[in-house]
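Could you help me review a protein record that somebody else here produced? This is what I was given.
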Amino acid sequence: MEEMIFALEAVLPFVFMLACGYFLKRRGILTENFRQQGDALCFRFLFPVLVFQNIYTAEMPQTSIWRPIWFAIGVMVSSLLIFWLAVPRLEKDHRKIPVIIQSLYRGNFMIYGIPFSLRLGGEEAALIATAMTAVTLPLLNIAAIATYARYTEGEKVQWKDTVMQILKNPIIWGVLLGMLFFRLQIPIWEPVESCLADIAKIATPLSFLLLGSRLSGDMKGTDSRTLFYMILVKQWVMPAVYLFCAMMIFHFSSVELVPVLIFLTAPGAITTYQLAIQFRADDVLAGAFVLYSMVVSVVSIFLFVMATGICQRII
């Protein structure tokens, strides 16, 4: 019962924010134009400030941040290899193959990772989530583009431009600057630090309001059978398998386990839909997965938080 209450208290605030976003969309307040501008604001400004603030104000972690990061990289590499081998054997439509692969190995950790880790594991878990975001984001982007380029006939990949886009990623620069200021103990004038702290607080609620505004019941033209199996594997099978490994083989502490759990259970990233359009893949399936995995993740995150709490108490 204690684990259930803890899981509910962790998940429900984000559920309410998603519901508010959906309601505001239905009322015509969160329009498509506002959503596009809001996404740009979060990506280019709010999240870089958030990750900078998390690192700059962090206490020296008591546990190593590298074990969860290496584990996340291992999850990404192993799942990519499995799906690169398995999906083309099960699905013959080349427009669906890259959508399925990216949907299964990549979640929206950039948005879900830090706020959930902070709520579930405190500042130390949020710091690990911040570092995981910085390390895995470039790798995820490269793997996604390589996957789409392999199976679709859309625009050709310009790898030089891709690398430059990754290097210009504002979130990565927020991490690098945060590490620089933290390591060198560079002081920030108090009014500026207070301003940064207030701006950082905007990132999570705004991003979840924007996510909620994307919720829709429209499945027109979607391969519902494929969508069902994608969500089953991404939100249930993979978290169960990898969390078992994290607890039983690697013996992660609670602080280490929290960002790993969110890395595994975070729903589909909007990038999946955007790349599907860019490479002329099955954007309908990609969009449906992003939306419905978001809904299912509310339940899966809640149940896995509760289950890992019970398992850790038993172990």
The chain has a mean pLDDT of 87.
